[in-house]
Amino acid sequence: MANPFKALGDLNQLRKQAKQMQDELAAEEIRVERDDVVVIISGDQKIKHFSVQGVTSNEAVDVLNEAIKKSQELAAKKLQSMTGGLGGLLQGS
User: Fold this and answer.
1) CA angle (63 as vertex; 49, 79 as ends), nearest 5
2) Residue ranges of the domains in the chain?
3) Nearest CA to 68 among 79, 78, 76?
4) DSSP string covering 6-50
5) What is the number of alpha carbons within 13 Å of residue 49 lying toward its C-beta?
6) Phi-psi region of 2 (alpha: psi -120 to 50; beta: other; left: phi over 0)
């Protein structure tokens, strides 16, 4: 007889792996410099630094991060509609 709770254990393991991957991505940084523009972004797609000609703007960083977050939310909605809501099972906290 199959154990109906095994699937929950497997799902919990997947959630732990996804969380670990998110944490690892957040620790990574990508630096791109072109001419007088510098952008540093974390692996989880958060702008850490943005400057043009050596001038940085926290307001610009906030606006860029808001735009990225909105695009991620849009992508998540589209994915959720395609998967029938299964993606939410993996997100957890």
Assistant:
1) 100
2) 6-91
3) 76
4) HHHHHHHHHHHHHHHHHHHHHH-EEEEEETTEEEEEETTS-EEEE
5) 14
6) beta
CA distances from 49 to 3, 22, 36 (A): 50, 20, 13
Q: CATH second-level architecture of 6-91?
A: 2-Layer Sandwich (3.30)
The per-residue pLDDT for 56 is 94
Residue 6, pLDDT score: 67
In degrees rounded to 5, what are phi and psi of residue 26? -60, -30
Would you mind telling me the total number of residues written for the chain in this entry?
93
Which residue stretches of the chain have pLDDT < 70?
1-8, 85-93
* DSSP type of residue 64: H
